[in-house]
Amino acid sequence: MQLFADLHIHSCFSIASSRDMLPDALLASCRRKGIGILGSGDALHEGWRQLWQERLVDDPGVLVVPTTEVEDKKRVHHLIILDSFACCRDLQVELSPHAKNLHRTGRPHVRLSGEEIARSVHALGGLIGPAHAFTPWTSLYASFDSPGAWYGEEPIDFLELGLSADSSYGAAIPELTGIPFLSNSDAHSPDPTRLGREFTGISLREPTPEGVIAAIREGAIFLNAGFFPEEGKYNRTACSRCFRQFTPAEAEAARWKCPDDGGRIVKGVADRASELSTGHPTDRPPYLHIIPLGEIIRTVLGTSSPSTKSCRRLYDRFIETYGDEIRVLTRVPVHDLALVDERVALAIEAFRSSRVTLVPGGGGRYGSFSFF
Questions:
Q1: Which has the closest alpha carbon to 41: 105, 100, 112?
Q2: Which residue in 91, 175, 281, 288 has the fewest CB atoms around it within 10 Å?
């Protein structure tokens, strides 16, 4: 069985998350998106676990896998995958002496090292890996040059690429040979431009949380999908104030301080990954560069947001006609899409053929794209 998975989201209990991040809204969005496996997010929060357990009793629907993200004492973020909410409760008890905000927020700060947290996760049969591993803030490679430098004797079970990277960014890093790459949305809103904006294709023997964990352990990934890396906020080295972009040599010469406005120059994911890539690229599952359907429609219609009424109406027509967004973006023939809207069909044909003009992001500002 092959399903698309988004294993990193947040809940209404996380900082800067929408109040609409509730089980019913998330499951409905998954069905419209085409996501068959959803990480619960924030599973160390007792109230959030309870909401999921109540919702899943009579209507399993989309396969929900208990997941959470934690920040450690060095501000490195980790994605954790467990096979039951009971295990999440056990991990909560284990970590509670080291986390003051464990009961208040969905993404807690834990005063332990990556190795200590990983040891607790592995003792419960779970998986752990660095979240958005290449970003210049709160990530493994923002602080360390290798997984072993922070996870010590505990192995990582996967690596999450993040919005500013695709598989090619990690393929030539020797320490990552044999480590599965996951693509996830890190969504704080159930809106389809956020949920499932990046996803992973996983081959399962059985559609259960245990089956998902086994598949990741075995590296049974058949696809990664997500943004063109240039669309990410931190893809290029750039000033965090004015967003002027620099080469690494220029940034070094300026001592990482923007000569225009004195802002901090932030090293981009592309340059950081290049520094770490000292081996030969290894074979990886195909990476499918996609753009959320809502963003394509917004661009074609020339509106300010995919949430405008005209964008919503057109989005709904595509979903009602063809079932889900991933199918629209990847499988429905262009001539069929044109029966709903020819302009959007041509735009989808353009990105399928990589005929997209990209303006890279950096310094905290998203990149942009155009089709024609």
A1: 105
A2: 281
Residue 206 near residue 32, CB atoms below 8 Å: no
- What was the pLDDT predicted at 259? 97
pLDDT score, position 101? 84
pLDDT per residue as tens digits for the range 224-238: 999 999 999 999 999
Is 231 strand, coil or helix?
helix
Residues 121, 208, single domain; the answer is: yes
The CA-CA-CA angle for residues 46, 214, 106, to 5°, reads 20
pLDDT recorded at residue 27: 95
| Residue with tokens 């693509």, as numbered in its chain | 183
Domain membership of residue 247 (yes or no) is no
What's residue 159's pLDDT?
A: 98
Q: Are residues 18 and 147 in the same domain?
A: yes
317: tokens are 């027509």
- Tell me: do 161 and 58 sit in the same domain: yes
The total domain count for the chain is 2
Token representation of residue 30: 């998954």
This prediction has a pTM of 0.95
Residue 187 sits in the same domain as residue 335: no
Quick check: is 287 in a domain?
A: no
Whose tokens are 């000292």? That residue is 278
Q: Is residue 242 part of a domain?
A: no
| Pairing of β 37-39 and β 2-6 | parallel
Q: Write down the residue that tokens 């779970």 correspond to.
A: 126
Q: Does residue 25 lie in a domain region?
A: yes
Distance of alpha carbon 372 from alpha carbon 356, whole angstroms: 8
State which of 203, 229, 255 marks the end of a domain. Answer: 229
Tell me, what amino acid is at 5?
A
